[in-house]
UniProtKB/TrEMBL annotation:
One of its GO terms (biological process) is mRNA 3'-end processing by stem-loop binding and cleavage. Residues 111-120 have a biased composition (Basic and acidic residues). CDD domains: LSm10 (cd01733). Residues 106-131, 147-175 are annotated as: Disordered. It comes from the Eukaryota. GO terms for cellular component: cytoplasmic U snRNP body; nuclear body. This is U7 snRNA-associated Sm-like protein LSm10. It comes from Amphibalanus amphitrite. InterPro entries: LSM_dom_sf, Sm_dom_euk/arc, U7_snRNA_Sm-like. The gene is LSM10. GO terms for molecular function: histone pre-mRNA DCP binding; U7 snRNA binding. Residues 23-86 form the Sm domain.
Length: 175
């Protein structure tokens, strides 16, 4: 499917911006292995991923639980059947998530920053975007602290890790 002709529904866009579906969408064009819930696996290049994590792989090699292989020109995997997706070594998960979130939040098209500021956003969308920014910030902190633990120094300060927003933080404002 071509992104120029495919439009996500509001629900698909919400899922792709607020779950790790955005990481899977960022793997489009990369060769990977998808392990399925029935102990089989599909290997190939990811061609398309929708907001519900349904994946199309082209060309694909399907291996069932017994080890029997079959080759397909195109193979569709229902999102509910996915157990694991192997992320290729050349892909940095954090940068891939950041890049895909930028694409998802601007609707798959280039939007000038002043135009993006003028777009109407619901309270739910604003809250979801704030949560996504906090998640990316926490992932960046973990990646930086992992590098510091390996021998490098991230910034030399021992700042507390950012906390992810949760119900308890929101409820504390109203008590």
């Amino acid at each position: 499917m071509d992104e120029r002709t495919t439009r996500f529904t509001g629900q698909e866009k919400f899922f792709s911006c607020n779950t790790l579906v955005c990481l899977l969408q960022a793997l489009k064009g990369h060769s990977t292995t998808i392990e399925l819930r029935n102990e089989s696996e599909v290997c190939g290049v990811i061609d398309y991923v929708d907001g519900f994590m349904n994946v199309t792989v082209r060309p694909a090699r399907f291996t069932d639980a017994a080890g029997t292989c079959a080759r397909f020109d195109s193979f569709f995997v229902h999102g509910r059947q996915i157990r694991y997706v192997h992320i290729p070594d050349e892909v940095s998960p954090l940068s891939a998530i950041r890049q895909q979130l930028e694409v998802n939040q601007r609707g798959g098209r280039a939007v000038r920053s002043d135009e993006a500021d003028q777009m109407k956003r619901s309270r739910r969308t604003k809250k979801a975007q704030a949560y996504t920014r906090e998640t990316v910030r926490a992932l960046a902190f973990q990646e930086g602290s992992a590098g510091a633990a390996a021998g490098g120094s991230a910034s030399g300060s021992s700042a507390a890790p950012p906390t992810l927003p949760g119900r308890s933080d929101d409820d504390a404002d109203f008590v």
